[in-house]
Design brief:
24% of the residues lie in helices and 24% in strands. The protein has four helices and twelve strands; from the N terminus they run H-H-E-H-E-E-E-E-E-E-E-E-H-E-E-E.
Amino acid sequence: MTQPTKADLRAAALARRDALDPAARIEAALVLAETFPLDLIPVAGKVVSGFLPIQSEIDVRPLMDRLRLAGARLALPAFPDRKGPMIFRELIRGADLVPMGFGTYGPGPEAAEVFPEVLITPLAAFDARGHRIGYGKGHYDRALARLDEMGRRIAVGVAFACQAVDAVPHEPHDRGLDFLLTETGFRTF
């Protein structure tokens, strides 16, 4: 029997995510915000990157607001050059956001580039060992590799519990998660 590919696992996990009830999605977003372990991952004075949800991703905006209230400086991914690397720009409350491609928005070129110490990381699927499947472009793997060169960063995957898979095929360039947060709990790897 052949093992499922990342593409197969991604498609199945995204189909389960797409099928979630809208009310359950809202509740899950609120649970993430309430259960993020600030005692284990202190964020005061740190740059924390989040993301604006696309498609059926879990909405981390309530979580980002809680982290802001706990003293974090917030950032969002930005793509200054569609072919270049993903960077992070500071998110200032009330500042204009501009299209970044991929159906999302982020701070424009006037916002300061920052280097997050904690990254709230989107994903398509995850396994119990802390491996993730993204959307196939490698943006977060490359960004984490660059940031880790400055000092190990904390990668917190966020997802709905239904995005779990038995095992993610792992390659040398894949950066694992340090933590995972779903509506059913928090895991450390």
